[in-house]
Design brief:
By secondary structure, the chain is α+β, with helices and mostly antiparallel strands. It contains one helix and five strands. The strands form two sheets. A three-stranded antiparallel sheet has the order 3-4-5, covered by helices on one side. The longest helix has 18 residues. The two termini are about 20 Å apart. The relative contact order is 0.24.
């Protein structure tokens, strides 16, 4: 993943799913004490889990979005 000082964006709002452009929120999993994001669209397979912080989860979501968009360029 990116550098530790990389800007993670506005932490108050969810970001968009790379596949279907629906707002995705980052949540904390109380069982593992890690953070995850899951696309709320029923037929979308996008998911990210096991992040140590909300910031890292958002950075990973942004990197996934950028990588997914570059596939079709």
């Amino acid at each position: 993943m990116g550098r530790p000082n990389e800007y993670a964006g506005d932490m108050r709002w969810g970001w968009e799913c790379p596949r279907c452009d629906v707002d995705v929120s980052v949540a904390r999993d109380p069982g593992s004490e890690t953070f995850h994001w899951v696309c709320p669209t029923e037929d979308c397979p996008s998911v990210g889990f096991g992040f140590t912080s909300r910031r890292r989860a958002r950075l990973a979501l942004r990197e996934y979005r950028e990588a997914y968009q570059n596939i079709y360029r």
